[in-house]
Write a structure and sequence with these properties.
This protein is of the alpha/beta class. Strands 2-1-3-4 form a four-stranded parallel β-sheet, with helices on both faces. Helices cover 52% and strands 12% of the residues. Strand 1, helix 1 (14-30) and strand 2 (34-41) form a beta-alpha-beta unit. It has one domain. The chain is built from nine helices and four strands, in the order βαβαβαβαααααα.
């Protein structure tokens, strides 16, 4: 059986894509699953991202009418901002049309995705060569983005496109158990992704023709 999981990944911006895309590939590798990921990025924060998701979801319905096959899994990731990950996740789940996407996993970085980059201090030290700063535990616009930038620059590392260009290396170096313990919103997202992939694998095995 060719186990290739088709994922539609809808992100708030390219930084979320860099983090989440690597996380999906790492989990799939650990579970020995092959991925086919199609990514859609929004721009301009939570409100615009949610509007664009709804519009894109309608476009998916139209494509289905023309015979286009849907994904096996929708992965939706938008920052919680100062709302809290649980409340934000509930709002995002309500926006998903289950008749369009039969399975989904939702990520709500609390408050912003840059905070997830600090989830495992040992990974920060290993990747950047600089101690991980203390988590201020605040919800301020741009706070964790600035903290990530300062940490990278203090480490003497270049920033070519943006702070989140280091996210893939940080995700690969993370101990997911330690990271999830430090950032509950990340733990819940990892658990959702793993569970969704495992459920898909069970269905694929059940529907596979006999050898």
């Amino acid at each position: 059986m060719d186990e290739r999981l088709r994922i539609d990944l809808f992100c708030e911006d390219s930084g979320h894509e860099q983090f989440t895309g690597t996380l999906l590939r790492r989990i799939a590798r650990e579970l020995e699953i092959r991925l086919d990921v199609q990514t859609r990025n929004s721009r301009g924060g939570h409100a615009r991202a949610l509007r664009e998701f709804r519009a894109w979801q309608k476009a998916v319905v139209a494509q289905r009418g023309r015979g286009s096959a849907g994904p096996d899994l929708l992965v939706l990731i938008i920052d919680a901002n100062c709302t809290g990950w649980s409340e934000r996740r509930h709002g995002l789940e309500e926006a998903i049309d289950s008749t369009v996407f039969r399975a989904h996993a939702i990520g709500c970085p609390d408050p912003h995705v840059e905070r997830w980059c600090f989830a495992d201090p040992q990974a920060v030290q290993a990747v950047l060569g600089w101690p991980c700063p203390m988590d201020p535990g605040k919800c301020e616009r741009g706070l964790y983005k600035q903290l990530l930038r300062e940490t990278i620059l203090k480490a003497g590392q270049p920033i070519l496109t943006g702070e989140m260009e280091y996210a893939p290396d940080l995700v690969e170096a993370m101990d997911f158990f330690r990271a999830g313990k430090n950032q509950p919103s990340l733990r819940h997202f990892i658990e959702e992704v793993r569970s969704a992939i495992q459920r898909w694998r069970v269905v694929e095995a059940r529907e596979a023709p006999p050898a």
